[in-house]
Amino acid sequence: MTKWKACYTFGWSIEAVEVHRETEASVFILNKPLGRIRRFAKLTSYEKYCDTWESAYVFLVGEAQKKSLAAYRRYEQAGKTLKAVRALTRPE
Asked: Where do the H-state alpha helices sit in the chain?
């Protein structure tokens, strides 16, 4: 069966993966160089195995939106800090 791996560790990508079996929380994939089947969590902090390409895409868009919002909040806080520093006056 084919699953779609949505990943954002070293760039953002969606790739098809052949899964041998799955459980509620894991997928089992053949590691070709070693010839062994390995277990992977379906959801980690940087990737998700999805049933369709569309659901993988929606996952990545959501993660990108979270990162964008977090960056915007940091930007706003940095602006407030800069304003506070510029408002400092030399003591008499």
From this structure: 53-86
